[in-house]
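Researcher: Next entry in the queue.
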Amino acid sequence: MNELEALGFGFVEIGTVTPLAQAGNDKPRLFRLPKDKALINRMGFNNDGIEVIVQRLQAWKLKNLKLQTSNSKLIIGGNIGKNKITPNEDAWKDYEICFTALHPYVDYFVVNVSSPNTPGLRELQEKESLRKIFGQLKIKNEELKIKKSILLKIAPDLTREQLDDVIDLALEIKLDGLVAANTTISRDQLKTQNSKLKTIGAGGLSGSPLKQRSTEIVKYIHQKTNGQIPIIASGGIFTGEDAKEKLNAGASLVQVWTGFIYEGPGIVKQICKSL
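Model: Structure for this entry, 275 residues:
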């Protein structure tokens, strides 16, 4: 995280973290589509589990204190999910376990119910499922001395009605923010050959092809809520112009992932210089 901060990142989101360690989907599970400046991934929430990740965060904080670099302004987000083996009706328990364990070590939380790579996960984006998860997390948050912001990461494949449901619920339960958007299952208008796409198979698409849809969603949420809900924009951000497009659409912050791979470690510096 110190290295990422040195590259210019103002915040780093770790995860997706689940209560138990899981290996994720079979490899290969990450594919480059250079013609489209895109990636397809089906990682499947591969991580070492909440206990190990908390230990790493503890060690990082301790190291920074010893090095007297505790004046670091780096903001850390915890992206939390459910284990593949956890049935959807019990999903809220997984989110609560991760929330409680990570709470002392991160500055904000992102509830990930929008990855296409965990079977049935996206069903949790339905209004009542979200109400259950966020209801529990809000109760837990209120019990703690220091309150942490809780955001929801949404899929770019939501229908207008589903998006309206998310917005209504976000306003109703006073959600701290939305992350728009996760990867897409769409393969529309790609330059990469169909035969190659068929060989790759399932997974979430990110990068340039997601740029327009992500901006549309950011703009729609911003207008529909009169700017009441902070938005972290993600999807197709490679340059300062791309970042500006998202900010003009109503985003408060931007995140890069695929852009980091294609543009390299200088991406943040280039974006900030351009802005």
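Model: The domain at 2-24+44-185+209-274 is CATH 3.20.20.70 (TIM Barrel).
Researcher: Noted, moving on.
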